[in-house]
Amino acid sequence: MKNITDSFLCLGYWPFAGSFGFNTDILATNPINLSVVLGVLIFFGKGVLSDLLDNRKQRILRTIRNSEELREGAIEQLEKAQARLRKVETEADRFRVNGYSEIEREKQNLINSIYMTLEQLENYKNEAIHFEQQRVINQVRQRVLQQALQGALGTLNSCLNNELHLRTVNANIGIFGAMKEKK
């Protein structure tokens, strides 16, 4: 760097070749100036530019690696979530099928229970009717027997004398006593 600075300082010691002035020829001055500026920039800026580009490259590579890791993690999480979703859907289908079969089973049990209850009620009704029929038949028998006895007693009372009447009553009492003992 000292050589470049010295070369610029040395320009001040050069003798002037004639008059001092501006060169207005654009085609002659611009390419020279540009080549000098570019040469200086390339010479001094090469290291800085190289460092900047290397840093940028490293940041880009780090970002790509981080992105790949995040992508792989996201893919893993997605696969896990999809597996859980499939498992939950399978369980939901199983619960749905089991629920339907359970509902059908409960429905069938309820229908069977209702039929059994109706059958029991029918049996109770038939037993009640049979019991009531037996009670009515017994009442009718008792009335018929009472009426028959009253009619027989009336006929006997009108036809029999006291002695015959007493013997008949005693015989009937003996028959009724024997009937009660059999029951």
From TrEMBL:
Query: Where does this protein reside within or beyond the cell?
Result: Membrane; Plastid, Chloroplast thylakoid membrane
Citing just one GO molecular function, the answer is: proton-transporting ATP synthase activity, rotational mechanism
Query: Is the keyword rRNA processing in the record?
Result: no
Give the transmembrane region(s): 32-53
- Coiled-coil region(s) at which residues? 64-98
Annotated GO CC locations: chloroplast thylakoid membrane; proton-transporting ATP synthase complex
Keywords, ordered alphabetically: ATP synthesis, CF(0), Chloroplast, Coiled coil, Hydrogen ion transport, Ion transport, Membrane, Plastid, Thylakoid, Transmembrane, Transmembrane helix, Transport
Entry's PANTHER family? Answer: ATP SYNTHASE SUBUNIT B, CHLOROPLASTIC
- Quaternary context: F-type ATPases have 2 components, F(1) - the catalytic core - and F(0) - the membrane proton channel. F(1) has five subunits: alpha(3), beta(3), gamma(1), delta(1), epsilon(1). F(0) has four main subunits: a(1), b(1), b'(1) and c(10-14). The alpha and beta chains form an alternating ring which encloses part of the gamma chain. F(1) is attached to F(0) by a central stalk formed by the gamma and epsilon chains, while a peripheral stalk is formed by the delta, b and b' chains.
What further fact does the record state?
A: In plastids the F-type ATPase is also known as CF(1)CF(0).
Q: What name does UniProt use for this protein?
A: ATP synthase subunit b, chloroplastic
Q: Which organism is it from?
A: Campylotropis macrocarpa
Upper lineage: Eukaryota, Viridiplantae, Streptophyta, Embryophyta, Tracheophyta
State the gene name recorded for this protein. Answer: atpF
